[in-house]
Specification:
321 residues; alpha/beta; Rossmann fold; 8-stranded mixed sheet; 4-stranded antiparallel sheet; binds iron/sulfur cluster; binds magnesium ion
């Protein structure tokens, strides 16, 4: 199939406990309903404000977290409830690059050992036997070969993220989920790391789920984009379609906030009022209705579903139902 991964109605809730007996008193609906598919070899950008559930979605899709409900199909196989050695086998093909290259690398380990570790964990050779392979990986991500013998603190933020990328690549995964891989880096090195990811994706034939809070970062990276709001996927379309023809009022507001270099293209900035509601107590009906400039009376009662409004363009909004 052209799909590497399919996600259907995925939910991830966290229990909220309270009172003397720490009883469950509710749920944080971090991911409330997500359906999407990743085509082989594509970059899918998952965008949304902080707290919208995109990181939780990424970690649930990679099965770092156990889903509360829904389905995850990877290469035609249902991996939703796998555990133990079966899950381990699948996780070899699905790797993550994390936001903070400082926190995600063990400071006491030599870079060579950090990058070898996943290979050793899967019994793919001894550190000594793997050394050439690991050194080659370090060169591929743009690090000097002697990086092998150094420690994370000897590198800059951008270089540390390259180490994280080398580690993610070591097992030759089919899918990489990159969760805000450049948000912690200086603006001056962000595009270098993004370009590296792009070129490695081609070379290694990777499918990339690229998570970001900034629409202008995903734009140049992504073939398709999904916009999240309060645990829901509200719009999915090809990247240029999202920018030229956003349909969901939330996406329209996000697009209108991107600075336009050409003043003739200046469209009215849509200012959203109100705070993002708590995922512990999300609004009824459409989750966006308390802030939506186009809300109608039924929006507080009826929950919209992601529907195709034209080929390869899906929107979750009652204006289109
Ligand atoms: Fe706005 Fe209603 Fe559409 Fe929700 S369903 S985005 S509230 S118009
Ligand atoms: Mg996050």
């Amino acid at each position: 199939s052209e799909h590497l991964l399919q996600v259907e109605n995925l939910r991830k809730y966290y229990p909220v406990r309270g009172g003397f007996f720490r009883r469950k008193i509710g749920d944080v609906k971090a991911v409330d309903r997500i359906s999407l598919e990743l085509k082989r070899g594509e970059t899918f950008g998952l965008v949304g404000e902080s707290g919208c559930g995109k990181s939780t979605a990424g970690r649930t899709i990679t099965r770092l977290f156990k889903p509360t409900d829904g389905k995850i199909i990877f290469e035609g196989r249902d991996i939703t409830n796998l555990s133990g050695s079966q899950l381990r086998n699948i996780r070899k093909d699905i790797q993550m690059v994390f936001q903070d290259p400082y926190a995600s690398l063990n400071p006491k380990m030599m870079v060579g050992s950090i990058v070898s570790e996943p290979l050793l964990n899967y019994g793919l050779g001894s550190e000594k036997k793997l050394k050439n392979e690991v050194m080659e990986l370090l060169t591929k991500v743009g690090l000097p070969e002697d990086a092998y013998y150094k420690y994370p603190h000897e590198f800059s933020g951008g270089q540390r993220q390259r180490i994280g990328i080398a580690r993610a690549l070591a097992l030759k995964p089919k899918l990489i989920v990159a969760d805000e891989p450049v948000s912690a880096l200086d603006v001056s090195v962000q595009s270098q790391v993004l370009n590296l990811l792009k070129s490695l994706q081609k070379e290694f034939d990777l499918t990339l789920l690229f998570i970001a809070h900034d629409l202008s970062v995903v734009k140049h990276m992504s073939d398709r984009i999904g916009v999240m709001y309060l645990g829901n996927l509200v719009e999915v379309a090809a990247a240029d379609e999202i920018y030229r023809n956003p349909k969901h009022p939330y996406t329209q507001a996000l697009i209108s906030a991107i600075p336009q270099p050409d003043p003739r293209n200046k469209s009215e900035r849509i200012i959203l009022t109100g705070d993002v509601p708590s995922p512990q107590n999300p609004p009824t009906g459409c989750p966006f209705h308390p802030r939506c400039p186009e809300a109608m009376p039924e929006c507080s009662e009826k929950r919209p579903h992601l529907k195709e409004v034209k080929e390869e363009h899906r929107v979750s909004c009652l204006l289109y139902e």
